[in-house]
Each structure stands twice: as structure tokens, then as C-alpha cells.
Design goal:
Elements (H helix, E strand, L loop, with lengths): L1 H17 L2 H13 L1 H4 L6 H8 L3 H13 L3 E4 L2 E4 L1 H6 L9 H15 L1 H6 L3 E2 L1 H18 L2 H7 L3 H4 L3 E5 L5 H9 L4 E6 L1 H11 L7 E5 L11 E7 L9 H8 E11 L8 H6 L3 E2 L17 H11 L1 E7 L4 E7 L2
Parallel strand pairs: 3-9, 4-5, 4-7, 5-6, 7-8
Antiparallel strand pairs: 1-2, 8-11, 10-11
Helix pairs in contact: 2-7, 4-5, 7-9, 9-13
Amino acid sequence: MLEVLKLNAEWLQKMLRLEDLKTILLIERCAKMGFFESFADPKTVEKVSNELNLNFRVVKVICEFFKSKGLLSEKNGKFCLSEISKAFFLRNSIFSLLEIFEEKRDEIANWLNIENSLRRGNIKREGEFFKKRILYLGKVALLKDLKIVFKISEYEEFREAEKLLDLGGGHGLYAYAFTLLNKKLEAIVFDLPEVVKTAREFIKPFKAERVRFMEGDFFKDDLGVEYDVVFSSFNPGGKRAELIPKIHRALKVGGIYVNRQFFPRGDFTIEDLEWNLWGFEGLKKGLKAYTFEGDLSFEKYLEKLMETGFKILDVFGEEYRVIVAKKIV
């Protein structure tokens, strides 16, 4: 399964880099309407336009456009789905990208309603936001972010590990991928109750037998103990000083803490503006994208790790930083 996902990761990254407003909206609406399901078997444009009660001329052009993008193929006047569309645009596929395109559509809506954000702000409840967002993040994890899993699997500490905590792990797919790469590993995903409820359903098709979920708030609740690995990817507490001692206590001596985070650099960008178009009810954001009030800088975070009893084994990544730290005392 992991090899199949690696092969398709390049295609997904190209699609998302294009950020083509019209194409994103078209694919998202077509997927919602069941357009791709209609071409599960070869059909003429006329037949599909009648089935879906759509304009024939428009459907004809959509089919030709999708054919040019590799989403449909044509033979003897009938169109059918390509292998990419079968995997990514059928709603019942476990690899369906519908959540990704819905997320992109929501981003577009934020920009279309920018005046409201400029005047009054757009406030969201943390639990509800992450409950929905884990579906998007889960699909991105499947198709874009597997390189982090393979990188961590190279460490001797991971190969010998038997117990892993995915802190704020949401969808659980990182935890699942780790268990595929270490056959003796048990993984626990810790997240908010609303998120865990959705995640349990999301991961069912994968039959992740060595992944279980723990409900809680990592700022308030106990994380457990005797972990060989603690993994954290882009969670809102990932740059906070007060979580470091708690993570330290959760690990065995010799265990590793892997933290993947965006640390702000350089001038303000359009992404920083987008980050500030909306906010949470109880979680105060920083001005730079993917930051929150109380976050440490990259340098201060490393200092705090070492003060707490960690040794920094590695730091890598360009768009984001991955810190690998080992508990030595």
C-alpha cells in the first residue's frame, strides 16, 4: 500500500501547486454531484448529461477537459474513468481526495468573504474545526507526507520501538504507517474527543489493528508513560514550552521525540494574511502563519529541549523543521 501511495504523491503535489481556482471548483462540484461515478462504466456524453440533468454542451467540454488532464479516457465516442480518477475521485474510495478539494473550496470562500474577516473576523470552535480538518489532513498524509514516515523509520530507536504515541495525531494514518514499518509496534493516537470520534471511523477501512485512540487535551491531561517514540506533526502545542516536560516524562530513557513544525521565518507573506482571516474561540493565534501565542522560536525550542534532558539527534526540512531529540536523562 505504501508503495502505491508514493507513486501517486508526485501527481497530487503537482495538482495542489497549480492552485487553479477554476479547476479546483470544477473538480469539487463534479465530485459532489456524482459526475465521476457516472463514468465508472464507459458512457456517452449524452447519456451522462441526461442522467445528471446537465447541459450537454457543458458536459461535452468538461469531458474533453478532464481527458486532457488524464482524468478521463475516450474510446469509440464513450468516456470512462482513468486509474487516477478511480482512486482519487470516486466517493467510496479510501483514497478519495474529495476532502482536499472541499478544503480548497473553503479557502477560496474565505478570500471571497475577505471583507467580513477584515471588519469582524471569522471565529471557529477548535474541536469542530479539527474534527473536520482531520479528514483533509488524513488524505494529504496518505499522498504527500509519507517521506517523513520513511525517514523516521531509518532510526535504530524506531526499529527497536514497541510503543509509540502520536500526539495530536488526528486521523491516525501516521501511526498506522509506522506500524506497517515496524511489525512489533503498538501506536496510540492522542487527540480531542471530537477528533477521535471522527478518526475512528476514518481509519476503519485500513484495518489498523495495532493503532488505538486516547481522548484528551494534551495541555491538561496525562499522556501515559513508557513510550519508545513520541511523534508530533503540526499540532498547535508543538512549539510550547510547557509541553516539553510532559513529553519528557512520557518517554523511556533512550526514547525519541520527533516534532514536525512550521517555525516562522522571513518577511510577512500572503499566507500569513490568510492565517489571520479567521481565528479560534479559545486558542489565540500568532501573526505569522501556523503560530500561536506562547510559541517558542526555533532556537528557544531547541534550548528548552536540551534543558529538559533531551539530546538533539537531527534537524531537517526546508518548508518545515523536523526535530529528532533523544531522552538521555
